């Protein structure tokens, strides 16, 4: 069964951590799944978000999965997160999309919803 994890919760939310836990479990069981970061969930892809040394870093934990990490481009830009291409396009002086994350359009979410058997939103 394929699963789509739609992460809309901010990285500080316990729900965002539950999404990671489910992704790790699905990966360990070799079950098909995809993720999509949307709304406040896009903040996990902010390279400039500081996490104290004594706390787990959600961004780093997602990167360790070595899976595709699509992030809604509109939601990201609205929250001050940009890749190099969008920074240039929108005349921004810097970019801060974390390594391993990718800015994509909502069409990708629509395709993922149509091709999955189960959608779980966090």
UniProtKB/TrEMBL annotation:
GO CC term (a single one): sulfurtransferase complex
Keyword Cytoplasm: yes
GO MF: sulfur carrier activity; sulfurtransferase activity
Record flagged with keyword Membrane: no
Stored Pfam families: DsrE
Location of the protein in the cell: Cytoplasm
Keyword list, A-Z: Cytoplasm, Transferase
Predominant location: cytoplasm
A single BP term in Gene Ontology: tRNA wobble position uridine thiolation
Family note: Belongs to the DsrE/TusD family.
UniProt protein name: Sulfurtransferase complex subunit TusD
Gene from which this protein is expressed: tusD
């Amino acid at each position: 069964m394929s699963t789509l994890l739609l992460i809309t919760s901010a990285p500080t939310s316990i729900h965002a951590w539950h999404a990671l836990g489910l992704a790790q479990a699905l990966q360990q069981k070799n079950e098909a799944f995809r993720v999509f970061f949307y709304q406040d969930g896009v903040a996990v892809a902010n390279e400039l978000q500081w996490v104290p040394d004594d706390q787990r870093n959600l961004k780093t934990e997602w990167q360790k999965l070595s899976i595709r990490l699509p992030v809604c481009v509109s939601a990201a830009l609205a929250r001050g997160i940009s890749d190099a291409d969008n920074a240039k396009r929108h005349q921004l002086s810097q970019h801060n999309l974390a390594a391993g994350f990718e800015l994509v359009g909502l069409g990708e979410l629509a395709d993922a919803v149509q091709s999955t058997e189960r959608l779980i939103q966090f």
